[in-house]
């Protein structure tokens, strides 16, 4: 009888590809079904940021790292939009499932903790990459910014979606209600995004703040995308890639452990 049960449990093979694909598809269609909120709204927000900074600072602003200020600013706006939406995609999906009580629909199917993690991450990464493509296309039309190293830019966009998607899933599992989720967003995610060289070069910061910026993974995400888009950066792109990869793997490992143990997921 035990052998029959083991054979039944292994009927999908080492990976339940159908289940993984179905969960990834659900998480992707979830944001595509409301594309005006998930794709169009970030584009408008990015445009408003650029417009406001252009009006507030004016065309007389000196160059930053040898490029015009708006050109320097654009990659930071793109990555900030990517990470905020990747975080929102996984965190909102998890919190809504927990609050509505239908998280069981995700936990009951024969999916391993790793497959659940990857399924949710697929939605966050897909949303981040699509938003990056939409905003970058608009920047190419308006500012004439064409990525100088498109492959590097794509790698850092995917890393940004994976890192913040995993962090969003972690936060969604930890939070039991929406106000807890809002607190995490306001006091952790927003400072990480804004205090990471989005609007300035960290070389202009005092030594202490400069060192603190270099322990923020979001700084390396923005810096790596900036190199991919306009060819300038505060740090070596390879260093940024290593830091972001390690940070993503660390958050994924912690989140996988939470799913495996059923932390705040099972009664």
Brief sketch in words of this structure:
The protein has about 270 residues and is mainly alpha-helical. About 75% of the residues lie in helices and about 0% in strands.
Beta-strand segment tally? 0
**Uncertain ranges:** 1-10
Distance from first to last alpha carbon: 29 Å
How many H/I helices?
A: 11
Strand content: under 5%
* Largest sheet, strands/sense/barrel: none
Give the ordered list of helices and strands.
Answer: HHHHHHHHHHH
| Rg from alpha-carbon coordinates | 20 Å
Please tell me the overall pLDDT.
90
Description of the molecule:
With 267 residues, the protein is mostly helical. The protein contains eleven helices and no strands. The chain has helices at 2-9, 17-32, 35-57, 69-100, 104-107, 113-142, 150-174, 178-194, 207-213, 217-230, 237-261. The model is unreliable at 1-10 (pLDDT under 50).
Give a quick set of tags describing it.
mainly alpha, 267 residues, single chain
Which helices and strands, and how do they pair?
Layout: H1 2-9, H2 17-32, H3 35-57, H4 69-100, H5 104-107, H6 113-142, H7 150-174, H8 178-194, H9 207-213, H10 217-230, H11 237-261
